[in-house]
């Protein structure tokens, strides 16, 4: 089968076109991943969905196909942490330090992605240097070249496509808990509904810095997601009263120096601990947001000791 029947479903004239069902979306993505789709058809399908808007069952079906296509590639994990931001608004990747803190609790973190921000690619060695030895990171191009090629179509099409959403939903380690960041607020609900269709039980999604799972410490953050398979929407109160942009060009910070203690920045540190707290709160339903924040701050205070590195 080619991709033509699925393009026809979504691109017929007014009054005849409709969204794909979950099974149709799974089959369509299977055609793409198996290399049976013409590039023109792939672009047509992605741009029609872009114009019309993504539907939860389509995202769930595409994600299910990707999971089936790439199975058992990486070890099982406790927490899935996708990282696919590529916006010009992206500043220092402080979310990597947050993941590093969370890993010190013993949670196995699987981070996967493709990272470029401010037109500069975040290389694997940069990610390992910041995320530390206890966070596993796998670049998309090594996990699934076909998915990487679909993501890279943005350079030719000039627009993001639903593959950006699918990759955040992917969870290749089959972790029971996942955290996701989005750039556009409307995707929080979309991804939560798609995750429920896939049987996900525990999930937190926020509008984060540059589209990453990285919170602004001076703002109330609305958390969408799932707990026990049920939808939640809860506000995490601001940690600081300071008013500023999350990634202020006049207040850049060296994240490695921040971790090592040779640089100090209260706002950046609150970004790290606040982000880590949301991940800890997601992973442990028995704790409150306040307790998670207290734990994250304690971890930050002892971060180098916990890794056996002299402070």
What's this entry about, in short?
46% of the residues lie in helices and 14% in strands. It is of the alpha/beta class and 311 residues long.
Notes on the structure:
The chain is α/β, with parallel strands linked by helices. It folds into two domains: 4-69, Up-down Bundle (Transferase, Pyrimidine Nucleoside Phosphorylase, Chain A, domain 3), CATH 1.20.970; 79-306, Nucleoside phosphorylase/phosphoribosyltransferase catalytic domain (Pyrimidine Nucleoside Phosphorylase, Chain A, domain 2). The chain contains 15 helices and nine strands. A seven-stranded mixed beta sheet has the order 5-2-1-6-7-8-9, sandwiched between helices. β6 (177-182), α11 (186-197) and β7 form a beta-alpha-beta unit. It is elongated and about 60 Å long. 48% of the residues are buried. The mean pLDDT is 92.
Q: Order of strands across the widest beta sheet?
A: 5-2-1-6-7-8-9
Q: What characteristic shape results from the CA principal axes?
A: elongated
- Most strands sheet: 7 strands, mixed
**Uncertain segments:** none
| CA-based gyration radius | 19 Å
Instruction: Report the span from N to C terminus.
Output: 60 Å
Percent strand: 5-15%
Secondary structure: number of strands: 9
How many alpha or pi helices? 15
Q: What is the mean predicted local confidence, pLDDT? A: 92
The secondary-structure class comes to alpha/beta
| CATH superfamily label of the largest domain | Nucleoside phosphorylase/phosphoribosyltransferase catalytic domain
CATH class of the largest domain: Alpha Beta
Q: What's the architecture of the largest domain, going by CATH?
A: 3-Layer(aba) Sandwich
Order of helices and strands: HHHHEHEEEHEHHHHEHEEEHHHH
């Amino acid at each position: 089968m080619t991709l033509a029947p699925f393009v026809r479903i979504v691109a017929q004239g007014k009054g005849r076109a409709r969204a794909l069902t979950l099974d149709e979306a799974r089959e369509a993505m299977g055609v793409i991943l198996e290399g049976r789709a013409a590039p023109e058809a792939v672009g047509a399908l992605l741009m029609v969905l872009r114009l019309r808007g993504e539907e939860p069952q389509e995202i769930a079906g595409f994600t299910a196909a990707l999971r089936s296509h790439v199975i058992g590639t990486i070890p099982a994990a406790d927490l899935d942490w996708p990282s696919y931001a590529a916006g010009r608004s992206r500043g220092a990747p402080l979310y990597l330090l947050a993941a590093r803190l969370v890993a010190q609790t013993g949670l196995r973190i699987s981070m996967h992605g493709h990272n470029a921000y401010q037109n500069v690619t975040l290389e694997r060695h940069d990610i390992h240097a910041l995320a530390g030895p206890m966070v596993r990171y796998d670049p998309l191009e090594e996990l699934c070249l076909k998915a990487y090629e679909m993501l890279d179509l943005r350079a030719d099409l000039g627009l993001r496509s639903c593959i950006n959403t699918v990759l955040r939903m992917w969870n290749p380690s089959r972790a029971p808990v996942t955290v996701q960041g989005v750039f556009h607020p409307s995707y929080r609900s979309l991804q939560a509904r798609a995750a429920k269709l896939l049987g996900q039980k525990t999930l937190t999604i926020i509008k984060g810095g540059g589209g990453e799972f990285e919170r602004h410490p001076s703002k109330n953050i609305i958390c969408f997601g799932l707990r026990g398979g049920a939808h939640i929407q809860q506000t995490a109160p601001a940690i600081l009263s300071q008013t500023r942009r999350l990634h202020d060009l006049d207040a850049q910070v060296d994240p490695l120096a921040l971790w090592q203690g040779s640089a100090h920045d209260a706002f950046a540190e609150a970004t790290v601990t606040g982000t880590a707290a949301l991940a800890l709160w997601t992973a442990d339903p028995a704790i409150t947001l306040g307790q998670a924040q207290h734990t994250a701050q304690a971890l930050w205070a002892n971060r180098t000791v916990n890794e056996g590195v002299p402070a």
